[in-house]
Amino acid sequence: MDYPLLLIICLILLSSSCDTFSQIFLKKSVNSLDIQVNGIKKAIDFVLRLILVPGTWISFTFSTISLILWLIVLSRVELNFAFPLDSMHYIFIAFASGLFLKEKVCYKRWLGTGLIVLGITLVSLTK
After folding, report:
1. pTM given for the model
2. Hey, how many other C-beta atoms are within 10 angstroms of the C-beta on 20?
3. How many Cα atoms sit within 13 Å of 90 on the Cβ side?
4. Which of 29, 47, 64, 93 has a CB 3.0–4.6 Å from the CB of 55, allowing a cystine?
5. Which pLDDT score, from 0 to 100, does residue 39 have?
């Protein structure tokens, strides 16, 4: 690695944060529409109405920023180093869905999320 480790970690955390905001805005946008998608016509109507919701475009913007940051990270470090750190978005999503969407995150979900992150971390440390 010829780039400072702290800079790479910050870029990965920023990418994961942008991805989290993208998912939150997209979920809020979808929830703002009261459409039951049970056919191709309704699916097309749903997508067309979703495009008009400002939160959808905010979501796309955060997603694009996340992608750009991730591409920068991948151009600087090995994938087997970067990808496990990107698993932080599991934790970010759990926090954000509870905070911004008022979803209940039970202890079993926290335990499962923690085990996933621990497992990915252990795999990344092996050579």
Report:
1. 0.84
2. 23
3. 18
4. 29
5. 86
